Amino acid sequence: METFVNGAVFGGAIAAVIILVGVFMRPTLKCSECGTPLPKFRKPASFHQGMWGGYTCQNCGAELDAKGQKKDA
Ligand SMILES: [Zn+2]
């Protein structure tokens, strides 16, 4: 029983580490217009951004998709 509990705790810790590494290893995106680095954690400016990703550049105000490319309006 104790072995089972230890295994569950260990498995959970590994999963948490993998998720954290995935977040921190993500390359920092830059605005394709002005080159300003985009924050990894941002407040979505709209429902669509919250659902699909995407950014609004803090520096130049460009609408960017989830890969940092400017969207054609
Ligand atoms: Zn920009």
Give an overview of the whole structure.
This protein has 73 residues and is mainly alpha-helical. The protein has one domain. Helix content is 41%, strand content 5%. The chain has two helices and two strands. The protein has a two-stranded antiparallel sheet with strand order 1-2. β1 and β2 form a beta hairpin. The termini are far apart. The chain binds zinc ion.
In short:
The protein has helices at 2-25, 47-52, and strands at residues 55-56, 63-64. It has 73 residues and is mainly α. The longest helix has 24 residues, at 2-25.
Q: Total number of β-strand segments?
A: 2
Termini separation comes to 60 Å
As a whole number of angstroms, the C-alpha radius of gyration is 18 Å
**Shape verdict:** elongated
Strand content: 5-15%
Q: What's the pLDDT, averaged over the residues?
A: 82
Low-confidence runs of at least 5 consecutive residues: none
- Structural class based on helices, strands and sheet pairing: mainly alpha
Describe the secondary structure blueprint for this structure.
Blueprint: H1 2-25, H2 47-52, E1 55-56, E2 63-64
Antiparallel strand pairs: 1-2
Bound molecules: zinc ion (ZN).
